[in-house]
Amino acid sequence: MIIGVPKEIKNNENRVALTPAGAAEFRKNGHKVYVQATAGQGSGFEDSEYEAVGATILGTIEEVYAIAEMIVKVKEPIASEYGLIKENQLLFTYFHFASSEELTHAMLKSNSVCLAYETVEKVDRSLPLLVPMSEVAGRMAIQEGAKYLEKPMGGRGILLGGVAGVKPANVLVLGGGIVGAQSAKMAAGLGANVTIVDINLNRLRYLEDILPANVDTVMSNEYNIRDLVKSADLIVGAVLIPGAKAPHLVTRDMLKLMKKGTVLVDVAVDQGGCIETCKPTTHEDPIYEIDGIVHYCVANMPGAVPYTSTLALTNATLPYAIQLANKGWQKACTLNEDLKKGLNVVNGKVVYKAVADAFGLKFTSVEEVLEEELVG
C-alpha cells in the first residue's frame, strides 16, 4: 500500500503522524511511504531521518494526497485539505466528527473512508488511540491552568499548591476518565485540594483507592456541580462520550457563581466542550474571558509538547496502521473489532451512530457497508 504523511497545518500543530521508526516498519512490511517535506520537524525528526529508512520526501501536501492510498494524520483535515481527498482514499486520524457538521459533510462528499482514532474501541470499552493523548492533555490541563491562575495572565493570582500558612488552590475536575484521573493526579501532586466528579460510582470507588489523600470524589449531578464551582479556582472539563458531542455540565449561568479570575480548561472542546461558554481556541491565542472567568479551550493541547505527544501517539497507532496497510481496510476491519468501531464515514455513508444522531443524518451499519465492500 502507498502511505502518505502530510504535514499538519492546523494552527500550532507540531505533531506528526509517523516517526522515522514507524516509516521503517511500513517499509519492512513492503509498503511505500511518502512524507511531506518538514512534516516531522516540529517533533524533532528531520527529512533525512525518513529518507534513511526508505521513505520518499515530497515537496507539497498536494503531492502527498495525490499519490497516497492511505493518509495517516494527527488532526482532522481542515477546509484547505477537503479538495485534496480522493474517492476511496483511507484517512486514519483524529476526526471528532460530532463537533463539526462542516467536516462531516465534507468527508461524506469526498467519498473517502474515514477511520477515526478516537472511536477505535476494545472489548473492555477502552479507547487505545485516545488514551495517550488523553494522558498528555490531562496533565497539560493542570500545567496550563496553573499558568493562567497567575495574575498577569488574568487569573486570581493563586499558587496551585499554596505555601506554609496559606491554603492551596481548589481544583474541580469534571469526569473521572483518563483525562480526569491524570488531571487530578497532577493537581494533587502539586499540592492542590482536588475534587473529581463522575456519574459512575464504581469509577469513583476506583479513583478513591488510587489517588492521593488530597483528592475527594463526588457524584456528578447539577446540584453538586453548582455548589462546587463556587469555591473552585481551577475547573477542568474532562467529559467524554465516545464519538458523540459532550454534554454541558457547566452552564452559562454558573459563571455568576464563580470567583473572578477562576480558570476553566475544557479538554472536551474537540467534542463540542462540556462547558457551555467554551469555544475552540489555538495555542497562538489560547484564552478569552467571559464575566471575569478565564477560558482556556485549545482544541489540540498535546500539539504544544509535540515530541512527547508524537511518540506516545505513534506507539499506539502504528500497530493498527500496519494492519490496515497489510490487509486493506475492508479485511482489517472485518477481522479486528477494534478497527471496525473506528469507521465513521465510508464512501458517502455515515456508519457511526453517534455521528449520524448529532446531525440528523442517515445511519448505515458498518457491517452492511463491509459486506458490500467485500462482495463488490
From TrEMBL:
<protein>
    <recommendedName>
        <fullName>Alanine dehydrogenase</fullName>
        <ecNumber>1.4.1.1</ecNumber>
    </recommendedName>
</protein>
<keyword id="KW-0560">Oxidoreductase</keyword>
<dbReference type="Pfam" id="PF01262">
    <property type="entry name" value="AlaDh_PNT_C"/>
</dbReference>
<feature type="domain" description="Alanine dehydrogenase/pyridine nucleotide transhydrogenase N-terminal">
    <location>
        <begin position="4"/>
        <end position="137"/>
    </location>
</feature>
<feature type="binding site">
    <location>
        <begin position="267"/>
        <end position="270"/>
    </location>
    <ligand>
        <name>NAD(+)</name>
    </ligand>
</feature>
<feature type="binding site">
    <location>
        <position position="15"/>
    </location>
    <ligand>
        <name>substrate</name>
    </ligand>
</feature>
<dbReference type="InterPro" id="IPR007698">
    <property type="entry name" value="AlaDH/PNT_NAD(H)-bd"/>
</dbReference>
<keyword id="KW-0547">Nucleotide-binding</keyword>
<feature type="binding site">
    <location>
        <position position="203"/>
    </location>
    <ligand>
        <name>NAD(+)</name>
    </ligand>
</feature>
<feature type="binding site">
    <location>
        <position position="220"/>
    </location>
    <ligand>
        <name>NAD(+)</name>
    </ligand>
</feature>
<dbReference type="GO" id="GO:0000166">
    <property type="term" value="F:nucleotide binding"/>
</dbReference>
<feature type="binding site">
    <location>
        <begin position="298"/>
        <end position="301"/>
    </location>
    <ligand>
        <name>NAD(+)</name>
    </ligand>
</feature>
<feature type="binding site">
    <location>
        <position position="75"/>
    </location>
    <ligand>
        <name>substrate</name>
    </ligand>
</feature>
<feature type="binding site">
    <location>
        <position position="198"/>
    </location>
    <ligand>
        <name>NAD(+)</name>
    </ligand>
</feature>
<dbReference type="InterPro" id="IPR007886">
    <property type="entry name" value="AlaDH/PNT_N"/>
</dbReference>
<feature type="domain" description="Alanine dehydrogenase/pyridine nucleotide transhydrogenase NAD(H)-binding">
    <location>
        <begin position="149"/>
        <end position="297"/>
    </location>
</feature>
<dbReference type="GO" id="GO:0000286">
    <property type="term" value="F:alanine dehydrogenase activity"/>
</dbReference>
<dbReference type="Pfam" id="PF05222">
    <property type="entry name" value="AlaDh_PNT_N"/>
</dbReference>
<dbReference type="GO" id="GO:0005886">
    <property type="term" value="C:plasma membrane"/>
</dbReference>
<dbReference type="InterPro" id="IPR036291">
    <property type="entry name" value="NAD(P)-bd_dom_sf"/>
</dbReference>
<comment type="similarity">
    <text>Belongs to the AlaDH/PNT family.</text>
</comment>
<feature type="binding site">
    <location>
        <position position="134"/>
    </location>
    <ligand>
        <name>NAD(+)</name>
    </ligand>
</feature>
<keyword id="KW-0520">NAD</keyword>
<feature type="binding site">
    <location>
        <begin position="239"/>
        <end position="240"/>
    </location>
    <ligand>
        <name>NAD(+)</name>
    </ligand>
</feature>
<dbReference type="GO" id="GO:0042853">
    <property type="term" value="P:L-alanine catabolic process"/>
</dbReference>
<dbReference type="InterPro" id="IPR008141">
    <property type="entry name" value="Ala_DH"/>
</dbReference>
<feature type="active site" description="Proton donor/acceptor">
    <location>
        <position position="96"/>
    </location>
</feature>
<dbReference type="InterPro" id="IPR008143">
    <property type="entry name" value="Ala_DH/PNT_CS2"/>
</dbReference>
<feature type="active site" description="Proton donor/acceptor">
    <location>
        <position position="270"/>
    </location>
</feature>
